[in-house]
Amino acid sequence: MFFIPMLPFKLIYSDGYDLSLGAHVFPSQKFRWIREKCLADGIATEADFLAPELAPDEDILRVHSQEWVRKLKTGKLEAWELMRLEIPWSAATRRAFWLSAGGSTLASRRALADGCGFNLGGGFHHAYPDHGEGFCAIHDVAIAIRSLQADGAIQTALVVDLDVHHGNGTAAIFAADPSVFTLSMHQENNYPHPKPPSDIDVGLPDFTRDDVYLKLLDDALARAFDQFERNASLRESPVASRQSLPDLIWYLAGADPYVEDQLGGLGLTINGLMERDRRVIAAARSRGIPIAITFAGGYARRVEDTVQIHVNTILAARETFGTTDKHAEHR
Ligand SMILES: [Zn+2]
Description:
Strand order of the largest sheet: 3-2-4-9-8-5-6-7
Order of helices and strands: EEHEHHHHEHEHEEHEHEHE
Distance between the termini: 6 Å
Helix content: 25-40%
Bound molecules: zinc ion
Shape: globular
Mean pLDDT: 93
Largest sheet: 8 strands, parallel
Strand content: 5-15%
């Protein structure tokens, strides 16, 4: 008999996260495989998972236009809108996006309670207020941030986006908003074009490898905290929003900077990606800032690699936050 200590944070997951795309370069079944690997490898038990609810339209509309939400709900998308979205549209797909937004909102709230919270779906950072693109119909992370700001749970946030693709939707949504600081580190010579400016953009050359990447990441994180603090004067009162640290960090831990990714052109190894995760999570933990994490892209030639990279992010968080035997389960 052996026991699996409970994770010190929750993993938000629903079978409904699968976008049901059929044969497609985006393996949206990966969300289920991540959960299954966590269970099979003894990383988590059923008690570590929480199910999300569909995000209420009220929350979706804090970020997206009435017109875009109406089109998604009625399925009345123009041919060119589907081409830009690059995925087929169905009731199951719509439900998956609404669940993912509910999941990111729940992960944010769990992060405030536990220090860390994972949404095993989401990271749809290419969605704009009035259109979707690049497999992203609605922006779950922005919806989560706006929802928590609306009820006063947080006032400020920092988005650290390390997907290989620039966080164009995030940059556009928060462009004129000093309460949400955006950092995107991505391959410069890749989708999307154009790239609207984040607060900090680090556009990497093709084939960037672990050592160079990690150095630039350390620099970018340091600059982000420094600049966030200096931006305090831009933020309106109340006083709490003048704090020198963000109330919440959202980390988009894309698996697609991996050297074997089909849609990426960087040169990171699986170990390099896990070290990346450790550094972001430690940056939050060492400052006492809650961190919510989602997985975003991942299109490795071997889908097992994508799943391993995502599971490693959970392991990196467990290293940093430790395990608890408070509710240890025997089996
Ligand atoms: Zn990506």
